[in-house]
Amino acid sequence: MPRASGPLAEVLARRTVFLDGGLSNQLAAQGCDLSGGLWTGRVLAERPDQVEAAHTAYARAGAEVLITASYQIGPGHPRATDLLRRSVDLAARAAGAADHEVWVAASVGPYGAVLADGSEYRGRYGLSVRELAAFHRPRVEALLAAGPDVLALETLPDPAEAEALITVLAETDAEAWLSYTVAGGRTRSGDSLREAFALAAAAPQVIAVGVNCCDPAEVLPALEAAAATTGKPLLAYPNDGSVWDAATRTWQSPRTPVPWPTGAWYRAGARLIGGCCRIGPDRIADLAAGK
């Protein structure tokens, strides 16, 4: 079956759509080396076949949206444009080989991800909205040139970066979702969630808002804040409750499994649901099967 033929926004008005899970953990499970600052981008550059295989694993598990391996590719990389376009092409190939409709979401990770020092979990980089927009603009242009179905403006730690990306988005005719990473009922930078989500309320190209790469326990309060502020479809793709240790570049796992109250997320308005870091194809298969 070919890639999804209609806009994702139209489908979200009718039903829930399932996202994929963490690309990094699936690549690690396939034996790939993710060391170094590029993270999944290293595999994108060195072993593109493995990236396509990871996308294929999620599509076979029932994922209806594949998020590209472009998260940590910044404009300073000498092959940035080629790698960004490659990331979309690989996801598109996996989507085209699936037995159900699949959309391709081009990942636009935060500025902090490119620093590779855990800054995406802190925000407040000391850059202006204008400077952040200048950083993201060439990435967005390169990704859009490859023809994804939607942009994933994801793992944003603070409203300033969201404002910058909404500014860049308005210069295009693309649609996107906007997703913060949160902790303690606030953005990672400590800002009010209602104020953060309000930035997207008046942006017609933003088709869904929500959270990702956070503890599952943080999801519902954030969705409620997004619903009250934006009226848009919501999205949730948390991790497994682990905490990233930037010094050791490892995940510190929770002592006990963290529950995923997906029923409450649906009732709050979530229409895009999947997983982020440390969530694999098995969990996505369970979600897609309604387990």
List keywords for this structure.
291 residues; two-stranded antiparallel sheet; alpha/beta
Explain what you see:
By secondary structure, the protein is an alpha/beta fold. The chain has a single domain, classed as Homocysteine-binding-like domain (TIM Barrel, Alpha-Beta Barrel), CATH 3.20.20.330. It is built from 12 helices and 12 strands. The strands form 3 sheets. An 8-stranded parallel sheet has the order 1-12-9-8-5-4-3-2. A two-stranded antiparallel ribbon has the order 6-7. Strands 10-11 form a two-stranded antiparallel sheet. Helix 10 (219-230) links the parallel strand 8 (206-212) and strand 9 (234-237). The longest helix is centred in the first third of the chain and has 17 residues, at 80-96. The two termini are 26 Å apart. The mean pLDDT is 94.
**Would you count the extended β strands for me?**
12
* Average residue pLDDT: 94
Kindly provide the name of the CATH class.
Answer: Alpha Beta
What is the strand arrangement across the widest sheet? 1-12-9-8-5-4-3-2
Gross CATH architecture: Alpha-Beta Barrel
Distance between the termini: 26 Å
- Counted by DSSP, the helix tally is 12
Shape, per Cα inertia axes: globular
Low-confidence parts lasting 5 or more residues at pLDDT below 50? none
Based on secondary structure, the structural category is: alpha/beta
Major β-sheet profile: 8 strands, parallel
Report the helical percentage. 40-55%
Radius of gyration: 17 Å
H/E series, N to C?
Answer: HEHHHEHEHHEHEEEHEHEEEHEH
CATH level 3 topology:
TIM Barrel
Question: What is the count of structural domains?
Answer: 1
CATH superfamily: Homocysteine-binding-like domain
Strand content: 15-25%
